[in-house]
Amino acid sequence: MNEHGPFSIPENVYVSQHPLVQHKLALMRSHFTESRKFRMLLREISLLLFYEASQDIPVAPLTVQTPIDRCPGFEISVRVGLMAVLRAGIGMAEAILDILPAVPVWHIGIYRDHETLEPVTYYDNPPSQEDIDLTFVLDPMLATGGTAVEAIDILKEYWGASRIKFLGIIAAPQGIRTLLKAHPDVSIHLAAIDSHLNDQGYIVPGLGDAGDRQFDT
Ligand code: URA
User: Fold this and answer.
1) Which domain CATH number covers 107?
2) How many folded domains does the chain comprise?
3) In which domain, by residue range, is 32 found?
4) 111 CA distance to ligand 1 centroid (A)?
């Protein structure tokens, strides 16, 4: 329940209950957390969420030669890609690159035109690698959902992207509804679902502007 009415979590939306995620989220939300610490927390939460959201990445068996003997092991058997929504998704992508350094990253910048209210893509830099099987779309704040819908429209058109997971930190119910309505095949992985959006489009209680807080702007 939130102050704007009940919101039951749809089937393909996952909100981490992990104590580490919840502990770090509270620190991240705090008005008194300065940007250096905020960036660190964003990276840590992103990694923890990615760990949970990547549980079902397909693997294939292989044999490893240890210094002592041969033994069975596994390797990731699909092509994974990241799409980082500028600017706030950059920190999330950096965190994931620490554990999967070879994955291609697509940076995309989208803003909403104040008059037409239509999303406008101002930066779109896809990697050269095509045919990605599983893409993680990274944006810490799922507010109206307009940016996420547009980013995933573009992603599906270019990469054909057979499987897409959206990784965010905080969502508003409106953003979840909008995203799932446009792309019901996308799963959404979060640290929290907050109450609503205010008149300026900020998530309440949220954490403020995730870009400004990371880069101290
Ligand atoms: N983007 C942000 O950075 N914060 C919000 O609360 C909503 C959108």
Assistant:
1) 3.40.50.2020
2) 1
3) 13-215
4) 12
Do the domain assignments include residue 186? Answer: yes
- Is residue 149 included in any domain, yes or no? yes
- 6 part of a folded domain: no
Cβ of 203 less than 6 Å from ligand 1: yes
Q: How confident is the model at residue 86 (pLDDT cuts 50, 70, 90)?
A: very high
Report the separation in Å between the CA atom of 88 and the middle of ligand 1, taken as the mean of its atom positions.
9
Q: What is the pLDDT of residues 137-190, one digit of tens each?
A: 999 999 999 999 999 999 998 877 679 999 999 999 999 999 999 999 999 999
Residue 123 included in any domain: yes
Average pLDDT of the chain? Answer: 93
Question: In this structure, which residue's CA is closest to atom 7 in ligand 1?
Answer: 202
Q: Which residues contact 56 (CB under 8 A, 6 or more apart)?
A: none
Q: Which residues contact 36 (CB under 8 A, 6 or more apart)?
A: none
In this prediction the pTM is 0.94
Q: Beta 170-171 vs 192-193: how paired, if at all? A: parallel
